[in-house]
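2024-03-11 09:14:02 INFO worker-7 job=invfold-0412 stage=load source=structure_tokens
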């Protein structure tokens, strides 16, 4: 069964690769990288494959090595490792649907960071197909994979497909009594409308209001966490407009529930959109002209406008920061970056946004440095076909992909006699 949703699960990043941990002495000046070395994870995977280890062990070794490669910035090698693992295990989807789906899900994640939009979408579909092969159609994990596919649609700008998928999952989950899945689908629908409403409020704001209202008016006590999340979304929008009262009221309500063991993000300023300034100047000069000053075909100009004017390959940074006990962020900085990092101009807005985040208070002493977080940010653009060639090239629109590399604090031990 699907785990019960928590506010942390709803408002924080859901994908985590256990790669970094804070030092035992809590010193802020160092970060310890944990886990197997690349050579060790590679050897473990090779040995597993050589002895034809069980499917679940194969998947675990594959994911461990792929994670190591990804953290090291070797995205393509990580994806190739995952592809090989998928080829070895795919035929066992009916008997091992969850482990095999973890491989296809990881392929989707790495593909997104590589700008492989089509592969990202297809791997999300593949994840759904794998789970359907071995689980009932109304299993929470199958419906959860449908939400993941809708997320991919949303990330790739396919609004109608994402909207339809979220609504379908919410409707079916309600019919079969999967309240957690229903709530997650409805919340994602509200996020979808809210994201599009930022750029086109006349078209999408009413949809956002209706999606939030559907959550906020649900009086089922089991739905409370989704009502909290919807209130946070509503307050975030008001905070962007300069209204701090609504946000402070929601934050006060959440604080009354007590401090948290893990960071729960309740507000982050949006990261300013990144554009290729050189292209923007070129296009604006051309678009304002009545004629073509260069005497060349419009189609040629349009094709030129599709050329990327910055480097999008191997452009990533790991950003580290502490979430202090009071929920504010401290010590934001670049932990490390790609050896081929062309420029850090796209990183500065990210650092600024992280510094202004607000989390729920932590269950820690005020003198504690807080909880270390490490997040991977990748600058990429989607691969696309071009007129007159079969060779795919980078598109001009920059994209920021992110992945949480933090290790979350261990949950507290259950009290004696608890279930």
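2024-03-11 09:14:09 INFO worker-7 stage=emit residues=419
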């Amino acid at each position: 069964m699907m785990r019960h949703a928590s506010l942390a699960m709803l408002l924080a990043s859901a994908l985590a690769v256990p790669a970094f941990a804070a030092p035992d002495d809590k010193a802020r000046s160092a970060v310890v990288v944990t886990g197997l070395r690349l050579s060790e994870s590679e050897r473990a995977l090779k040995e597993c494959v050589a002895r034809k280890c069980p499917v679940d062990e194969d998947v675990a070794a594959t994911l461990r090595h792929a994670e190591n490669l990804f953290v090291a910035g070797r995205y393509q090698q990580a994806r190739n490792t995952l592809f090989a693992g998928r080829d070895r295990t795919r035929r066992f989807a009916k008997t091992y649907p969850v482990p095999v789906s973890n491989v296809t899900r990881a392929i989707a994640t790495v593909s997104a960071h590589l700008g492989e939009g089509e592969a990202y979408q297809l791997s999300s579909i593949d994840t759904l197909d794998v789970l359907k092969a071995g689980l009932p159609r109304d299993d929470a994990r199958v419906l959860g994979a449908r939400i993941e596919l809708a997320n991919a649609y949303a990330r790739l700008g396919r609004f109608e497909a994402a909207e339809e998928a979220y609504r379908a999952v919410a409707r079916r989950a309600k019919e079969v009594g999967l309240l957690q899945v229903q709530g997650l689908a409805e919340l994602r629908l509200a996020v979808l409308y809210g994201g599009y409403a930022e750029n086109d409020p006349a078209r999408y704001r009413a949809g956002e209001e209706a999606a939030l209202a559907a959550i906020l008016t649900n009086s089922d006590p089991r739905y409370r966490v989704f009502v909290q999340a919807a209130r946070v979304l509503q307050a975030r929008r008001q905070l962007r407009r300069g209204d701090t009262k609504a946000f402070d009221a929601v934050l006060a309500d959440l604080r009354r529930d007590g401090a948290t063991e893990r960071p729960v993000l309740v507000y982050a300023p949006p990261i300013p959109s990144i554009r290729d300034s050189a292209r923007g100047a070129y296009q604006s000069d051309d678009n304002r002209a009545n004629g073509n000053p260069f005497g060349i075909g419009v189609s040629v100009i349009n094709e030129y406008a599709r050329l990327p004017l910055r480097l999008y390959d191997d452009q990533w940074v790991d950003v580290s920061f502490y979430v202090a006990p009071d929920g504010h962020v401290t010590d934001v900085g670049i932990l490390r970056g790609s050896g081929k990092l062309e420029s850090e101009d796209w990183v500065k807005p990210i650092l600024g946004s992280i510094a202004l985040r607000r989390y729920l208070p932590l269950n820690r002493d005020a003198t504690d440095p807080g909880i270390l977080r490490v997040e991977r940010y990748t600058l990429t653009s989607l691969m696309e076909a071009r007129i007159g060639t079969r060779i795919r090239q980078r598109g001009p629109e920059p994209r920021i992909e992110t992945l949480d590399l933090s290790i979350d604090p261990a949950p507290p031990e259950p009290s004696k006699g608890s279930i």
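2024-03-11 09:14:09 INFO worker-7 stage=report msg="The longest strand covers residues 371-380."
2024-03-11 09:14:10 INFO worker-7 job finished
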